[in-house]
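Amino acid chain
________________
===
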Amino acid sequence: MRHLMHTYNRLPVAFERGEGVWLWDTEGNKYLDGLSGIAVCNLGHSHPAITQAIQSQAAKLLHTSNLFQISQQSTLASELCRLTGLDRAFFCNSGAEAVEAGLKLARLYGHQKDIKSPHVIVMTSSFHGRTIATVSASGNAKVRAGYDPLLPGFIHVPFNDVEAIRAIANTRDDVTAVLVEPVQGEGGIHVPSDTYLDQIREICDERDWLMMLDEVQTGIGRTGSLFAYQAHHLLPDVLMSAKALANGFPIGVCIAQEHVAELFKPGKHGSTFGGNPLACAAALATLKEMEKNKWWENAKKQGEALVKGLKEKLKGNPHVVDIRGKGLMIGIELDRPCREILNLALEKRLLFNISGEKVIRLLPPLIIEDEHVQMILKTLPELIDTFIASTKVGVS
C-alpha cells in the first residue's frame, strides 16, 4: 500500500472472489454487496455469461486499435442505438471520458453556430468525473478544490430548478447545452421532480441547445428502466454511459443524435483502447443478459421495497433527515457526517458507501432478491442506531 498514491481512504478489507450479490474477503468472510463496485456490477459478480464472453474473446483477440475496423464495436454501437433511439456511438474507457466527448461535441456545436465562447449549463452538487474538464463541470466544491484555474465555459445553476435555467436562457446567448444527471449520485442521491427532465427538453428545443444526459451511474437498469430518461417522453441529444455497461470491465460510451454526432470528424477525437474487442464483448454480453431478463424491472420492485421498509423501520428516528431514491439507487441522509459507519458495517458484513458526507448510499446489484432486501432492512437500521450512539448527540 505504501507505494500507492494516497487518493483513496480505503477500508481495511480486500476481496478475492465474488458470486452474485456476495463477496468473500481474503480471510474467507462473506459480505452482502450493497454497492456493486459503485453501481458497476449490476448483474452481480462472476456472472457466467459475461465470464464466458470475456474468456472466449480474450483467447482470440484483445486489441488492435481504432486504426482498423472492429466488428464487436460495430455490433455494440448498433445495439446501443437500437436500445436508446440515438444514432451514433463513440467508445472510450470510462464515464469521465464519455462526458469529455460530450463536452467537446457541445463546443463544436456552439462554434458551428458562430458562438465564440460556447457555455454549458451544469448543476450544483453534480459530479461528472475527475479530469480537468469534468471537474470544472461538476458542481461539488470539494471535487473542484485545489485545481484552479478550472476550465471556463460552465454555468452552474441549482439542481431541480427549471426557472434558474430559464433565467439563463433569457439573459445569455452563448449557451449551447445543458448537462444533467437524471438522479445525482455522488452528490447524495438527489431525485428531481417528475417533470424536471421534460422541462429541460422543452427549453433545449426552444433555444436550440443540446440536452446532454450523464447516465454513467443511472444507466443500465439502475433506476428502474434501462436508462433513466426512458421513464419520460423525451430523447436526449447526447447520452453518456459507462460503469455498468460491461458489468465491471472498463468501457464508456458517448451516444448522440446524427446532427450532433456528425460534428466529430477523423482527427477531432479518439481513444487508443476505447471500444476494443474485449471490452465490447463484455458489454454485448451484459446488454444481452440485461434485456433478456429485464433486470431494470427487478430494480424498480426491490428499490420500492427497500425504500418502503427503510421508511417504516427508521420512522421517528430524529437523526434520519431523509430517505430517497429511484430504483436501486437509494440514499439515507443522516444529520451528521457518517463515514465511520462503514467500519461498523464491515463487522456486520454489509457493504455500502457514503456520498455527500452525510448520505448512506445503497447501490446493490439489480439481481438482488427478497431475502437480500430483508437482510439489509434488518441490518442497516441497527447499524444506524449503533453509529448514532457512538457519536456525540447534536453533532452535524
User: Anything to note?
Assistant: The domain at 49-293 is CATH 3.40.640.10 (Aspartate Aminotransferase; domain 2).
